């Protein structure tokens, strides 16, 4: 069961990474950053976004467990919860 949760978390993080990159890139463009400043900003932004996703994933999985959800219901709840939590 723990392997399934870890795999689900990894899949969510992996699939969400391009969305973070696009959002962070848009923010860098708004700030008119270039060169080293842009690279530094993007690294920090993506790191912060990944940390927020990991926190949301953990919280949502705990909520699903409290509600005693399993299978498709748990996956659906967790996916929606993470989306709502991260604004994605």
Q: Radius of gyration, rounded?
A: 15 Å
Task: Please report which band the strand proportion falls in: under 5%, 5-15%, 15-25%, 25-35%, 35-45% or over 45%.
Answer: under 5%
Low-confidence segments, given as residue ranges, are none
3D shape: elongated
Average pLDDT rating: 82
Helix content: over 70%
Biggest β-sheet, characterized? none
Q: Could you say which structural class the secondary elements and strand pairing correspond to?
A: mainly alpha
| Total number of beta strands | 0
The helix/strand series, from N terminus to C terminus, equals HHH
Distance from N terminus to C terminus (CA atoms, Å) equals: 27 Å
Give me the number of helical elements.
3
Helix and strand topology:
Layout: H1 2-30, H2 35-66, H3 71-86
Tell me what the structure shows:
It contains 3 helices and no strands. The chain is an all-alpha fold and 88 residues long. The protein has a domain at 58-88. The radius of gyration is 15 Å and the shape is elongated. The protein starts with a helix and ends with a helix. The model has no long low-confidence stretch (mean pLDDT 82).
